[in-house]
Amino acid sequence: MEKKTHTYTESEAYTHLTTLCARSEMCRLDALRRLSRWQVPDTIAEKIVARLVQERYIDEERFAHAFANDKFRYNHWGTVKIALELKRRRVPQDCIDKALADIDTDESQATLHQLLQKKRPSVRGKNAYEIRGKLIRYAVGKGFPLDEVMKEVEHLEDWDDE
Which residues, in sequence order, are CB contacts of 27 under 8 Å at separation 6+? Predict the structure, then answer.
């Protein structure tokens, strides 16, 4: 089944994108990708995005803050993973730094502790060394800094596999 694509005019694309931006935060790259999917020419897409930025429908700092907050609270991502994803979306470094500064370090430590406590019963290994390695890989994969992960893993008890 062939999917029909609708080619938007400049005003249609602008109107549709303002509606989407009003519903949820969007960065410049997300908006450009959306316009590309709608087959809007690059020159017009840049013009639309510039207008959206000027009218504050798109604000990189606001996006970075909302993104970091959501990924930390709901997906339980660490600051490393959040920063990498924001960089991938070409958010300016100063916006990333401000967004990450809003994440409470104590809350981050508590989240890491909870993740490891929850994961520990399902991790199997031949010995404590192997279990620690799996837990470390898991937490680092969730985006927590290695030094914090190492400290937290050392504090966990009950290393022997049942």
Answer: 58, 60, 63, 64, 67, 89, 90, 91
Tokens of 50: 């510039």
What distance in Å separates the CA atoms of residue 65 and residue 99, rounded to the nearest whole number?
A: 4
- For the entire predicted model, the pTM comes to 0.86
16 and 42 fall within a common domain: yes
Instruction: Name the DSSP class of 57.
Output: S
8 pLDDT band, cuts 50/70/90, is confident
In the Cβ-directed half-sphere of 159, how many Cα atoms lie within 13 Å? 14
Domain that holds residue 67: 60-101
Residues 90 and 120 in one domain: no
